[in-house]
Amino acid sequence: MNASTPATASNATLAGSAEITGHPMVLSLSCKNSRGIVHAVSGALLSVQGDITDSKQFDSPDTGTFFMRVEFTTPESREAVEAALEPVREEFAMDLGLWEASRKTRTLVMCSKDGRTLNDLLFQQRAGTLSVEIPVIVSNHLELQPMAFFYGIPFIHIPVAKDAEGNSNKAEAEAKLLDLVAEYDIELVVLARYMQILSDDLCRKLEGKAINIHHSFLPSFKGARPYHQAHERGVKLIGATAHYVTADLDEGPIIEQQVQRVTHAQSAREFVIRGREVEGSTLSRAVKWHAEHRVLLDGKRTVVFD
Ligand SMILES: Nc1nc2c(c(=O)[nH]1)N[C@@H](CN(C=O)c1ccc(C(=O)N[C@@H](CCC(=O)O)C(=O)O)cc1)CN2
User: Fold this and answer.
1) Residue 161: which domain range?
2) Is residue 83 part of a domain?
3) How many distinct structural domains can be found in the chain?
4) 226 falls within a domain
5) For residues 195 and 171, what is the distance between their CA atoms, to the nearest angstrom?
6) Does 172 share its domain with 69?
7) Does residue 218 line the site of ligand 1, with CB under 6 A?
8) Which of 41, 80, 128, 250 is the most exposed place for a label (fewest CB within 10 A)?
9) Using CA atoms, how far apart are residues 306 and 297, in angstroms rounded to an integer?
């Protein structure tokens, strides 16, 4: 609108739009698809003086599920917004989430020896381009402790090993991890090249709250040594996949993937080096989208409102 527009009722509102102040919030929802959902949600937000600044939706033809993410500002309290949305949530039996847009996701990062993806996360967190706060780093090795020290973040060493009789301490290690999740009020666990397989029980407890970076373009080359598998196969593209962690190794819902061209002249070692570039950006992007509530689960798949 510019100064020359004559002042009328709707323009008055428009004229008053500069007055629309408030704090930015985000909601995301999923429910069985039906008519009237968008109308109901936008009406509820209007009732609390909501100004929608971004809105995306998707009807999943395979599952009949409707997904929606809305960014809006409102001068009213979170409680008032929750109250306005409650009848809509009930009417459509929604799985609905509501967040202050400025709130950072409390994130625990797990790593082993390869520090590229960890460094990318810590750099972006420090640079303010990743909406997370990382109060603690956990590793089954000590190699990355200096990096944690550099960023001023507590580093907890939880080795995972088998004794002479082949008995693993994985259960105790995972119990310590869950104690840290509770102690630091963690909302997201990121496996930044953490090279131990999490138990079924831990995966259930972290369902939808744990993201892993797998160093291949899934579903190709699952397991511990994907670059060597890829080199053996003679591929011309390598890649990385960020996915939610499930009990089925490297089978979790995919959030983001990227690829990198390679040639016959490169060794498996060079694949590892080139792969790190896409691992870092793939994981950081997936964590960014999760922290901004842009990723919703659609069965074994994801809907990403980027
Ligand atoms: N339950 C899950 N746990 C983990 C997943 C997952 O998808 N589900 N992803 C891995 C990461 N990863 C591949 O991306 C991976 C890590 C480790 C292994 C593996 O075979 N590890 C061996 C031990 C290796 C070692 O000690 O260095 C093992 O655990 O026996 C395969 C794939 C993280 N965890």
Assistant:
1) 105-304
2) yes
3) 2
4) yes
5) 16
6) no
7) no
8) 128
9) 14
Cβ–ligand 1 distance for 44 under 6 Å, the answer no
Residue 33 has pLDDT above 70, yes or no: yes
In a domain, 162, yes or no: yes
Q: Is 199 in the pocket of ligand 1 (CB under 6 A)?
A: no
> Could you tell me if 177 and 138 are in contact, meaning their C-beta atoms sit under 8 angstroms apart?
yes
> Using one digit for the tens of pLDDT, what is the confidence trace for 66-81?
999 999 999 999 999 9
Looking from the CA of residue 251, the nearest atom of ligand 1 is 7
Tokens 């498996």 correspond to 268
By annotation, the residues acting in catalysis are 250
Within this chain, do residues 210 and 164 fall inside the same structural domain, yes or no?
Answer: yes
pTM over 0.95: no
pLDDT digits 0-9 by tens, 108-136: 999 999 999 999 999 999 999 999 999 99
Kindly report the backbone phi and psi dihedral angles of residue 163, in degrees, each rounded to the nearest multiple of 5, phi listed first. -85, -175
Q: What is the pLDDT of residue 7?
A: 45
Question: CATH number, domain at 208?
Answer: 3.40.50.170
pLDDT value at residue 5 = 45
Q: What is the ipTM of this complex?
A: 0.94
* Range 165-169 average pLDDT: 96
Ligand 1 mean position to 242 CA, how many Å?
Answer: 14
203 C-beta closer than 6 A to ligand 1: yes
Protein residue with its CA nearest to atom 11 in ligand 1: 195
For position 223, what pLDDT does the model report? Answer: 87
Same domain, 277 and 160: yes
Ligand 1 atom at shortest distance from the alpha carbon of 199: 1
Strand order in the sheet with 105-111: 155-157, 132-139, 105-111, 188-191, 210-214, 237-244, 254-261
